[in-house]
Amino acid sequence: MKVFDQQIGQFIEAASSSAPTPGGGSIAALGAALGASMGAMVANLSTGPKFTQVQTKMNEIAANLQKQIHDFECFAQQDMDSFSRFMAALKLPKQTAEERTERTAQLQSAAIQAAEVPLHLMRSCHDAMSILEDASNQFNKNVISDLGVAVISLDAAIQSAWLTVNINLSTIKDKTITKSYQEQGTKLISDAQKIKQHVMETVMSKIG
User: Sorted alphabetically, which SUPFAM superfamilies does this protein's record hold (predicted)?
Assistant: First the structure.
């Protein structure tokens, strides 16, 4: 069963159990999907006779965000898979020098993958936020609060995914990789904050 094919209650129950997955990375992906769904809704409700000038753009935004919702589901599953891969590597034998070398290599590969998945999630969230920011003044003002919910949710997903990136970076020995991921993540966090602030200023001005 796909992650998002579960009932909401099932997913929450699984997340709250003693099982290690779904964990923070998958929760971040779910939050991102919810944010994107609100963004798609806002775009879909900004079409029709009153929005003929932006109809094509809104349709494109909605379609783009729907694709990203699918991507976020994939990230949720990949996060769980990467954790399982890391745990499997921990259980590899380490009696001989050859076994220890292989185990270390598998652990490092799994740790890199476990950091890459949430970093990709961060990029996708940033892309979704940028799309919404670009059209923030063109959306139907009757659902402008939902635009705010979308952007806040996507930003929260970025921050949450960043925690998952960092905890996995702590086990990666290749400092070139850790430095690159740190720089990428830090920039995404900073950019997302600016986008959120800009969109929320627009949202609050239209609400007021």
Answer: Methenyltetrahydrofolate cyclohydrolase-like
